[in-house]
Write a structure and sequence with these properties.
With 274 residues, the chain is mostly beta strands. It has a single domain (1-274), classed as Hexapeptide repeat proteins (UDP N-Acetylglucosamine Acyltransferase, domain 1), CATH 2.160.10.10. 3% of the residues lie in helices and 20% in strands. The protein has 2 helices and 23 strands. The protein has an 8-stranded mixed sheet with strand order 5-8-11-14-17-20-22-23, with no helix packed on it. The chain has a 7-stranded parallel sheet with strand order 2-4-7-10-13-16-19, with no helix packed on it. Strands 1-3-6-9-12 form a 5-stranded parallel sheet, with no helix packed on it.
Length: 274
């Protein structure tokens, strides 16, 4: 599963009262991992829960325990080795959910953690690995080779084109388009109708597809557009309706069309709170 070395998420209220700058020196630390089995989803370093639930709609339970997290670059996805020996998941026929769309010979069924809610008319391809407490809206498409962390929401009509990494505590709203070769780190909010691109010269010349990199704690407003290979820095904010043609530095505000880059006001240098 995708893990990034640092996260803005902090579930202790007394720490949420501090500004981001005050927390930045001491909030990233290794935390004790509760004792759990590792024979459900195997990763090179990260133990996962012991059981995959078979029911689509379940009573969600808060995920109280924090996990030890580690650095994982996109190039390390080959090291992810989930256990594919578990029983196949069955979904109610009337929900029209396709879980495990085969796109090539030898593709592997998707793997998903516990406490998930997948709503009707959603499609999840093979070779997808998803963590705990996963939720979708309706008509969601998640293509192959996508790795999604814990506590992630994917809104209605959102399309994830494959070969994408999504971290923990991420909220992606409705009608968002995320292209191939994108990276979204922990504690990120993406507003409705945001559109990312990965081709600098569409159908004109050969170009290596490079999707966006949205760093931890960034917040992206609705109806925003991002050019290929743009990086949205840690803790930054992109205002609604902005067209981002250049990378946004950490703790900066991007606003306008094309987006102008300004320092982020101090009172906005706080973690996203879902």
């Amino acid at each position: 599963m995708v893990r990034f070395s640092q996260t803005l998420d902090d579930r202790q209220p007394k720490r949420r009262e501090k500004s981001y700058a005050q927390q930045s020196d001491n909030q990233y630390y290794a935390r004790e991992e509760p004792a759990r089995s590792i024979d459900d989803i195997m990763y090179s370093r990260l133990p996962r829960p012991n059981q995959v639930q078979r029911t689509v709609y379940q009573e969600e339970t808060p995920y109280e325990q924090d996990e030890v997290i580690y650095v994982q670059h996109q190039s390390e996805r080959e090291s992810i080795q989930p256990d594919y020996t578990k029983p196949e998941l069955n979904f109610p026929p009337d929900q029209n959910i396709q879980f495990g769309v085969e796109y090539k010979p030898g593709s592997r069924p998707p793997v998903i953690g516990k406490n998930y809610t997948i709503r009707s008319n959603s499609i999840i391809y093979n070779d997808v690995v998803i963590g705990d407490n996963f939720r979708t809206g309706h008509n969601v498409v998640i293509r192959e080779n996508t790795n999604i962390g814990d506590d992630v929401l994917i809104g209605t009509n959102t399309v994830i084109e494959g070969d994408v990494i999504i971290g923990n505590d991420v909220s992606i709203q409705s009608n968002v388009y995320i292209p191939t070769n994108s990276v979204i780190e922990d504690n990120v909010f993406i507003g409705p109708c945001a559109c990312f691109t990965n081709d600098k010269y569409p159908v004109r010349i050969n170009y290596e597809l490079q999707g966006p990199k949205v760093r931890r704690g960034a917040s992206i407003g609705g109806n925003t557009t991002f050019l290929s290979n743009v990086e949205v820095g840690e803790g930054s904010i992109v205002a609604a309706g902005a067209i981002v043609i250049h990378s946004v530095p950490p703790f900066y505000l991007a606003i306008g069309t094309p987006a102008r880059i300004k320092p982020l006001p101090d009172h906005l240098k706080v973690p996203n709170r879902f």
